[in-house]
Amino acid sequence: MKENGKKGIKILIAVLIVILASVLVYLNQTPLFLEKTVRLFNKNYEYKTPTVELDSTEGVFVSSMDDARCVIATKEGIKTYSHMLKEESNAAFSGENPIVTVKKDKYLIFHKGSNKALFVNGKKNIPITASGNILTASVNENGCFALLTEEKGFKAQIIVYDKNGVEFYKWHSADSFVNDIAISPSNTAFAASALDYSDGVLKSKLLIFDTLSEEPKETAADESITAIEYISKSKIAVVCSSSAAVYSSNGEREWNHPFAGKSIFAYKIKDGKIAAAAGESNLTTETADVIMFNENGKAIVNYKNKGDIYGLDILSNDILIVGKRYMRVVSNKEKSYLKSGKDITTAQFSGNSKTVLLHTGMLVQLQYFE
Question: Fewer CB under 10 Å: which end of the chain, C or N?
Fold first, then answer.
């Protein structure tokens, strides 16, 4: 009877753990909470952090995806991993300094100094060969993508492709040095930021294209443009050296937020929002303004951060602030904080605001906030 009673208790405990684990998943808790709970019954239990070991610290590009999966590109190729960092697929695409552009479940990889790219749309791998070396790329949620390339006799060339990798628009820049591009969710429009020195004065401008027209609309910018991204079919987010703004598809500036006397040293454009960190310097002893705007220019997060900032990420109304040795999740106040024992290469939200895809040295891991 005693043995049966012990077995019954063990079975009951096991059932309770399974139920608790299910509840934690439903409540979006992290494995840290589960680990503490299981240790009440088994003091030796230790949760094994999902980890990918890399062969090198050089030539690595790590990016999370909207569905909590991730892609890791190295000099040898690119691999896709599940939300628990289990390898799902791989593609041979070797070269130095891989760069990956991700949108939803689609991504494009190219290597600096090369004219070749690989576009991955679900299970379809589409190789692309451009006429000149690829400088940057943009992918939209529908699978259309654009390449900015070098082109002999011109300052730059922009090529737009459909989801099957078929080229359907091309534009050559004779006067302007193009430094960034973004393709609209409409598939028929895209934008570029450029520097123009044609009249002897260096000017920054925003170019807005319709693939039904040969030439773009031009809008002068007050300062040098750092990055652009569509946040809807008709709105373009623009981050400059010391301001953030949104322009309409007609080239009209809808709103602008200047960081007076401060420089933007980290930013993120994602999910229809712009997050920017600005300060007088990016030192551990300095305090920076970290502000997130919605597409209408309303500041939905306004946080004073003390410490260096090397990266930002966005998830819903939360911002992930990434320093050299720390990570902090904030809204209008601090929600979570985590120190790192190693220098952080990159850190991004992974599925929820309590889970981070962390790249340090030769390791890519999931880290959890309590």
Answer: N
